[in-house]
Each structure stands twice: as C-alpha cells, then as structure tokens.
Design goal:
alpha+beta; Arc Repressor Mutant, subunit A; 3-stranded antiparallel beta sheet; 3 strands; globular
C-alpha cells in the first residue's frame, strides 16, 4: 500500500473511532432512506451543530453524503452494503 491509501484508511478509521459517529451511521443505515440532520439530532438528543460536525467528519471520510432539500440538509449512507458489512464485522470482534 502506498502512503496515500494509508492516509485515506486512517481518515476512515478516525471517523469510525467515535461512538456518536457510529450511532449516526447505524441510525441512517437502519432507516433505509436519507434522514434530515434535525431528525438525527433529535434521535440522539444532541444539538444540531454537534451532530453536523460529526456528520461532516463522516462525509470527509467518504462514509456519508450530504445534500440539500429546500433549506434542510439530508444525510444518506455513501455505500450502504459496505457500512452494514463493516458494522456487522465490528460486532463480531466484540
């Protein structure tokens, strides 16, 4: 593996290394549809700005996509089958 690939992998693992971000991935992947960030923040009982910061990290890692619907921001899983596989694999490690 070259340095660029290792750096990209590090960004992904960093994004996955936070329980809140894992919860966000789980919530969005289980919904089977894109979710408004406000709905995610209500589910987690967290401020919108804090949730948005976590989602931005997930987006930078290529794990989610964010797009605007009217004045709202909506989140969807970038590669749902891979995220589900990753979460299932991690569960087996515990």
């Amino acid at each position: 593996m070259n340095e660029e690939i290792l750096t990209n992998i590090s960004v992904i693992f960093n994004a996955l290394g936070n329980p809140t971000r894992l919860k966000i991935l789980k919530i969005v992947s289980e919904s089977n549809r894109p979710l408004h960030i406000k709905a995610i923040s209500r589910t987690l009982k967290m401020r919108y700005t804090a949730v948005y910061r976590h989602i931005s990290i997930l987006k930078n890692a290529g794990l989610v996509t964010i797009y605007e619907v009217g004045r709202s921001r909506v989140v969807s899983i970038a590669k749902p089958e891979l995220i589900n596989e990753l979460l299932n694999f991690a569960t087996k490690l515990t």
